[in-house]
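Researcher: Please predict.
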Amino acid sequence: MLGLAAVLVAFTEMDASTAALLVLLGGGVAVTNWLIDAYDLPDETSRGAYGALVLAAAALVAAITVPRTPAVFAFAGLLAAFGAWCVLDAYTAFRYGENADTHAFLRGVDDDGTEVMLRMHVLHAVNQELTDATGPRTPAELADVLDLTETRIEPALSYLASRGHAERVENGYRATPPRWGRLHPLVAFARWLPRRVLAPARRLRD
């Protein structure tokens, strides 16, 4: 790692502090990923480890960056705050579990991502079919059109309904127009972000 930093400084215009920061982050991520794969560590380990790396990077920025201007310390402070949040988020998720309000559709997936991709495909297909349909669709109708089982369709419908993208009508479902029109993704993100930031505090409180 020290050799890589020396090469970056010698053959590029990168200063020593920036090279050291990049090597620290890159090397730390590589080591963390190797340890997680080698010892089958919990998913929360990566979040906590990456947070610790960001904390170390913040300390490095504050210690070796010259000149030490208020902007440098402000940047280091933001890095430290983000790193500390990642560590706390990982700890509370490991200690108390993820948020209880996490929909079942998003839980219980396998580690290699195959199930995640399948569920996202089903979710997109169901949402698109409801959007294109001229009327409500039952789980059986959707399963027939999409060539899927109802056990795949029903959780996706439940999740779409919980997110406000679909609504139940008698025995079927229909798409719900976005409440905020074209601004809906931005509004949804603005509403999600504070809840995600406060998730560790909610776990500690509950």
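Model: Strands lie at 166-169, 172-175.
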